[in-house]
Amino acid sequence: MLRKPDPSALLRVWDLPTRLTHGALVLMVAGALVTASVGADWMDWHMRSGHGVAVLLLFRWVWGFVGGYWSRFTTLMVGPVQWVRYLRDGLPPTVGHNPLGALSVWGLWGLLTLMVLTGWVADDGVAYAGPWVHGVTASFSESTTHWHRHWGQGLLWGWISLHLGAVIYHQHLRHEDLIGPMWHGDKVYAPKLAASVVPSVDNARQRVKAVGWFCLCLLGVVGLVSLGQAGG
User: Is it the case that residue 190 has pLDDT exceeding 60?
Assistant: First the structure.
């Protein structure tokens, strides 16, 4: 019979807003990629998925400053020295993101942000025109549309594949559970270690704050999209 972990050994790493944002972002990105692949009839849904990604990304950028401790950007600030040391020395499991995981997160967020911005000025001439397409030149929109549909999507598929591959590697070869904590929020550590590490605040007050920030981000994206459309 499996023993339940000692409650004193559980450490709250990922707060609920971070976990919900992660899950919703997976769904929205998947929706954007699928609708982009099936044809013109689904471009309205592709656009809606892109706007949803924009809201979630904006919230995640904000939450990187005011969210739970391990969701903040200060825990993701690593450089080449840490990457090389991690690969060379095979460091033990980390509390938040390991150095390569942090690099993967920055790359994915950056790429998704670029995909949203290029999508807003894209125009395929048939079924889709981004809300900000009238604010740029036709040549810029044409080149941006080509990048968004080809290079951008290719890079995104590749980055997602690397991200999933890294998760599988850590789950099955390093025996470090990354999926469970992103579902329930907690990692299991020896009681002494858990007591010595800063946990993420994840209480009702924090969640109400997250709802407020999310609503502001939603209004901000709606305002940007509406402003672009009004300018057209």
Answer: no
